[in-house]
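Form 7-S
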Amino acid sequence: MFSTEQLLIDARWAGYVTIAFAVITLLGWLLKWGIRFRLVGITGFMTVLTGGLFALSLGLYIRPTIPDAVRFACVFDMGGTNVVIAVPPTVTETQLQATLKQAALDLYSPGRLSQGTDKLTIRARTILHPEPGVSKLVYLGQVQRSLLSRQDNELAIEIDPTKLAELPQPTA
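Output:
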């Protein structure tokens, strides 16, 4: 897979070639070469290619992974300030905390609709089945992060210990 650094280097070299073709095209127009119209096409193509490589270098962002985080599913996300994720009912407190941190990293987007607040709230829930045919939603905790900066070091993580105690305990 291409890395961001490699695509940026490729975009730089494509930019140099584009500038060279632009100079040759300008020279072709001044000297009235017969190939000047083809040079315009080549220069235009190189401009599009350079722009595409540069855009790809901006778009590839590899999110860090938080150790001990479990897989989660996003069950509610309208692109606003509230998101709900589902975690397995076997999650522990340390795993839940790591998963909330991971979700805060993964679900951040500068394009979210702020709707009057600068915080993104991500709530974690699971489904318990206390008896056959009955499902119970249990909200275990939440994390709040800033919508203004990607590097938010002050995550507000709240875990409800009473709800966490309702989860089935793993058998040893």
